[in-house]
Amino acid sequence: MIAGAIKAIAGEMQDRNMAAAFDIMMDERKARLFVVMEEGEVRDIWLENQLQQSI
Fold this sequence. Notes:
There is one protein chain. By secondary structure, this protein is an all-alpha fold. The protein has one domain. It is 75% helix and 0% strand. The protein has four helices and no strands. The longest helix has 14 residues. The radius of gyration is 10 Å and the shape is globular. The N and C termini lie far apart (25 Å). 4% of the residues are buried. The mean pLDDT is 85.
């Protein structure tokens, strides 16, 4: 379920960011939030913010 959601945006992400996104999803709370967020700009911004915090 989570992997599918990330794969849906994979075409827009660089490999390094994709790997970091999987690491972010290891946090169950963040993963659940990502899955219930509606696809779109807000979810993209949220994930981008998470990626910046993880680097």
